[in-house]
Amino acid sequence: MRLALAAGLLSLGLLAAGCSSPDAKLEAANALRHRGRAAEALSAYREILGELGDGTIPRWETGVRLRALRYAADVSYLDLGDYQGAIGYYRRIVSLYPGSEDAWKARASIGDIYAQRLGDRQAAIAQYAAVAGSDSKEAPRFQLLVARQYLELRNFEQARTEARLLRERWPRSPEADDAQLLTAQAWALEDRPDEALGAFLAAVERRPRPEVAAVALEGAAQIHARAGRFDKAIELYTQAMPGNPNPDALRTSIEMVRERREAAKTVTPGDRDAALDRNVRSRTKETP
Q1: Please, which residues have CB within 8 angstroms of residue 19's CB and are 6 or more apart in sequence?
Q2: DSSP 283
């Protein structure tokens, strides 16, 4: 009888110890989050992290700490909108687990917060560039993000430089095709039509994904249209049709180019009134 009682007490003691373990507390915190109690879940994650600390701990506890940090960061970012708090948790992952895939993902999340929530593209670039310079399998994608951030900042030269680095390091990657397209867009935004046209055509020559080729062909068509090369513009717009997600917009562009071509045709010498009337009608139709 006494032996049975002692065994029962021992079992209860082990059960109580298990319920208070960091792993069990983590499960309880997750349950709170799943029930929509994000603030309480974050408080529970903080308690776990406070117990484990940032120093050296047994290997099995490092996994619990990593998950607690990740969950605390995600709750802060996605559920509570506490962006600075989320950045703090993600930075602890980078510090405690350097060189790991979790560290690269944490940097990516920090970059997203800076770019999409805090409007600090320079800070985002620093995080994306760290992933791009790593051995992460996602490195090409983050190099492309670096180039895109510079494009958004209207630092066109640096955007082209970052795009070139991507093409040199990962020449056969899908991101290299996007980088060539971005290079053309940077030239176009800088109002350098000759360079932009060459870059758009180079993007097409790479035989990229249909949607990338369609955007490149459309960009080249726009340049020809602005230069008055209407037949070539119509030809390129037509080629862009198959891969374009908005073919109706291309049809509208083609119709506008045709109207401009008609308006530009030579009228009877001396027929100044007819020429003026045709140009006025053309401009009126083009006005949104």
Answers
A1: none
A2: H
Exposed / middle / buried, residue 42 (Cβ in 10 Å: 0-12, 13-18, 19+): buried
Token pair of 86 as six digits = 């989320």
| pLDDT one-digit tens code per residue, 34-47 | 999 999 999 999 99
User: How many other β-carbons are positioned within 10 Å of the β-carbon of residue 73?
Assistant: 26
Q: DSSP string spanning 158-218?
A: HHHHHHHHHHHHSTTSHHHHHHHHHHHHHHHHTT-HHHHHHHHHHHHHT---HHHHHHHHH
Residues 227-246 as b or e (16 or more Cβ within 10 Å = b): eebbebbbbbbebbeebbee
pLDDT at 266: 62
